[in-house]
Design a protein that fits this description.
3-stranded antiparallel sheet; 301 residues
Length: 301
Amino acid sequence: MLIRLKRIDRKEDESIMFNFPYGESEISNVYNQLELETSIAPNCYIEEVVYDPDINEVLKGKECNIDELNFLFKRMDSFDTKERKVFLASAFAENPETIAELINLSFNTYCYSLVSDFNNLETVGKDIYLSEKQAATVKELDELDGESFAMGVIKNNPNSRITPYGVLYINSNVPEQIYNGKQFPPYHWKETVATIQLTAKGTNEFIYLPCSDVEIEKALLRLETPYLHDCEVAIDIHNFSDRIINIISADTTPLIKIDTLNKLAEYYKEIGNHDIEYFEKLMDYVKPRTVEEIFALADSI
């Protein structure tokens, strides 16, 4: 999505156009072009979202942090047509002021039901029911009196909002604060080899391997701790074999654990699924006992 940004402290400058969302390895380009240091504070101003008047209406004129904005665009990148309309309608109704509020709204679209066509209340009721429950069996939907359900929702929503996308109703789901404005929640935008949870001072941040040093530095910034050795490191999701995980012992220092896992993730990414299967069969045969032996085996292929 094309968006024009300015530095928050240079609003008189000409804006620069960027194409969000970016992978973590590419977002540094935005920082460099805007001549900004890595930060978790608001650092840019949204002049315009180009060629998308609906999103432009939501974002234009907001001050934000580049990484927050990138996370929001990753969330929107996953929306199907229906989810996008509900997000836009709820943004219109709630009028969130910050990117953090929009990120939370992107995780809470299931708390709203949007109706744009009232011609068939039976269908409307079943659509509202499904959007509220998120899942239902065919039998459950067949037995549901859609018209009665729709009328109940309409009567119980005296504060429904008319939006450019339809009539928005608040359903029985309770919104959650998924993003606290500091640490990003886990979100798998694209396939990665492993997801690592870093914990410090009772808060969590996630990095996705393979990653750059800058990504680790940003995670530490959001955790408000300068050093990896102040963090607990947990492997949340991974494609490694149990043998590899067991070799990287629990008492390994956080720095060594992250460095080792990151190198292995780079290797897995390079060789592809077929060669990973061969490599893991080879490990079962050779039975390496140390990380050094694992890397030596990898280098021999």
